[in-house]
What does this fold into?
Amino acid sequence: LNSLPEVDMRTGRILATEALVRWEHPTRGLLLPGSFINVAESINLAGELGRWVMRTACADFSGWQRSGIGIDAVLRINVSPVQLVSAGFVEMVAETIDEFGIDGRSVCLEITESVVVQDIETTRITLAGLKKAGVQIAIDDFGTGYSVLTHLKSLPVNTLKIDKSFVRDLGFDPDDLSIVRAIIGLADAFNLGLVAEGVETVLAARTLLEHGCYRAQGFLLSRPLPGDAMAELLAKGSVPVDF
Ligand code: C2E
Ligand code: MG
Ligand code: MG
It folds into this structure.
């Protein structure tokens, strides 16, 4: 697993760490999730992979917390659409965080917009169960899926993550700025947390700050890190934000 910090761009403080799965392939080297998650899903291994990610991420996180670092940080874990609507998912999550002694409130599961719309009834039940387990929910890649707007009111969602395609060219592309401002307005209106993904430039960071979005991830702030490097960063508590 690699970890990507989420940063408060006003202060540099690390607010969260997102688990990003990697596959050390014997001949092809280090593979990114884009090249194997779909395959895993198509051969019914999504549950297996998801359980491994959940356990490994929780083990790392609880290890860090036991050594006194990342105490106030949130652990973010991506959940595939297949996994979210599969039987026993809520129990698996609840048992895992319990086993590793993690407070549910410091875990946030990231789901995508499309799943919410595809199977709204199952999603509703699953999200209610997760809420009961104390876990937070974020909508990942917000703005790229089918509109979930009508469900934002009624589902227990805590946070929106603005897709990186709208963030990358912020400062150059006026259309992207319009979209981002609309999402900021939406998050305000529904009282949701907001995180920008894919901040690569100082211009994008400044533009987001100017419009009131201060939580972000992206290569400008940090690359995805191996566990030991993430531990070091959490111990430091912040990254430099000289922009
Ligand atoms: P995501 O959850 O939206 O994660 C962010 C992705 O954007 C990561 O790619 C990260 O490396 C990349 N990223 C971060 N900052 C920047 C930036 O400034 N510029 C650019 N161009 N990219 C940036 P990664 O690790 O390849 O993951 C891709 C997607 O795969 C993730 O998107 C997530 O949807 C999925 N994924 C990752 N880990 C897991 C997992 O454990 N389970 C499941 N089901 N999906 C996963
Ligand atoms: Mg994510
Ligand atoms: Mg994303």
About this structure: The two ends are 30 Å apart (CA to CA). Residues 140-141, 161, 163, 197 surround magnesium ion (ligand 3) (CB under 6 Å). The first strand starts at residue 2 and ends at 8. DSSP finds eleven helices and eleven strands in the chain.
